[in-house]
Structure prediction request, 193 residues.
Amino acid sequence: MATFNPTADLPRFYARVLGTTILLSVATSLLARHLIVNCTESMPLGLYWLSRGSRPRSGDLVAFPVPSDVASLVRARRYLPDGALLLKQVVAVPGDRVCTDGDVLSINDVPFGPIAAHDSEGRVLPHPTACGVVRRGQIYVASRDRRSFDSRSFGPVRMSDIRGTVTPVWTVLGQRAMAATAWAPRASFTGHP
Prediction:
């Protein structure tokens, strides 16, 4: 039976603890760069994996900071904490025709979903009115949730602002997200590679 020798065993013990701490810190840092927690109900609540550097296509989920032209509104209304990323589905890419005049977002002349005039507390939402072809370097993002704060409220997102595509790791559908999946008509927006 081995006995504890403080002179020989204590330095090895400290070295193992230090090594384990360093490894756990590095692993945590790497995970933190890629894991995103979504707490909004326009997308399923849960954990998402961020893949940086991938070019988003129509149908992909993407992460990006709040667009600068609506950042003060988001901050004042406390929609999200400072520094939070928005997670949205890409619904239109360069070459697609988008129309936001009226009360419905249409993509390539197919209705995608209604455009909310007010937020959940009755405050007026911005509503950029435009009909035209999505320009190079821009995308439109939206959620099936009619109350989602997305391109219906802030217009196109610059590709340079996209942090990457996201993949659900673990999610729970909130009541709003479940209700949002019931809106019709449905259309596939996979016309571009």
